[in-house]
User: Fold this.
Amino acid sequence: MDLKELFTGTKQLVGLDIGSNSLKLAEIVSTSHGHILNRFLQMPVPPGTIVDGVLEDAGALSAIIKELFRDSGCKGKGIVISLSGSSVIVKKVTLAQMEEADLRDLIRDEAGKYLPFDNMDDVNYDFQILGDNEYNPSQMDIMIVAAKKTDVDGYLDAVTAAGLTVMIMDVDSFALETMYEANYAFEDNEIIVIVNIGANLTNINVIKGGMSIFTRDFTVAGNAITEGLQKKYHVSADEAERMKIEGVPGGEPGNMDLRNTILDCADPICSEIERSIDYFRSTFGGDYIKHVYLSGGSSRVVGLKSHLSQRLNIETELINPLLKIEYNKKNIDTEKLDSIKTIGAVAIGLGLRKTGDK
Ligand SMILES: Nc1ncnc2c1ncn2[C@@H]1O[C@H](COP(=O)(O)OP(=O)(O)OP(=O)(O)O)[C@@H](O)[C@H]1O
Ligand SMILES: [Mg+2]
Assistant:
């Protein structure tokens, strides 16, 4: 990479994916030749800090954010974070065509109708016009995104206490869409599904022609596998987590048994994914899905990819957030690339955002 480009390229915001299992920082530099991942760092989050998407220990989170930024060498102070799971609601509605200002008033007055909140004063929301409705051009499709102020404030406070400023509040599934757009070529009507399986949460995002048309988050993910192993082998959570990732000493056949058990424990995740995709197919007219892309730490479960592929009858592969994005070899170890590709999708999607874009 040309050093000069590093300095002339636009400095973007820093992506910070606040996962319940680990934080991920992604700093991207955009040049006329494309995007470069300049820095990436992951740092574990102590259990109990974020429980079921709710921030339980803002002090602990703030301390790790500080450490993460210090250790990464990242100088940027403006960051992008995301909400997911029960802390955010994404809702598509269809309304009559109108000017954006009128729409803003209408949504302010009537958002309560579309969103499951009693008091809209407690809610932060925003919306985006997706375009004309496919079936009725006198109407337009709108995406409303809403989150309870208390949920958002906790994260904002933790970030502020770490000496940083949140410039954009994004949503996990939209970050996946941004990352996909930057890396993959797609046709207008092509439908693909990104499934991000983390520790507490699985995000499903159905994308048509580069635009999100259906999203769903559910709280069955890697932790469910760990809990399954705990019960089956009567071990502690830490021990089960270690077995899941590192296997057991002594090689085969013990590890083959373990791998089968892990895949069995992953069954509830697969069932939920299948149910979400069935729901999508039934509501959206059974559209043809070209690919399922897996991401997230739990996509590493051996055999999961082929199991899902058979079950869904859709070609399934691991996503590659660095398909078209270069990386800075001075800051990023080549050995870390596989791990970054697995766990970095959301952080990279966030790091691609710039101030002022929508
Ligand atoms: N090799 C592996 N095999 C199986 N599971 C793995 C492996 N490596 C990591 N995991 C699991 O991946 C999960 C962490 O993934 P990820 O970093 O995507 O989660 P997160 O973003 O921190 O959590 P969430 O978004 O759910 O709050 C953990 O449950 C961990 O046990
Ligand atoms: Mg995550």
Confidence is low (pLDDT under 50) at residues 1-9. Residues 19-22, 198-201, 221-223, 241, 244-245, 296-298, 300-301, 343 surround adenosine-5'-triphosphate (ligand 1) (CB under 6 Å).
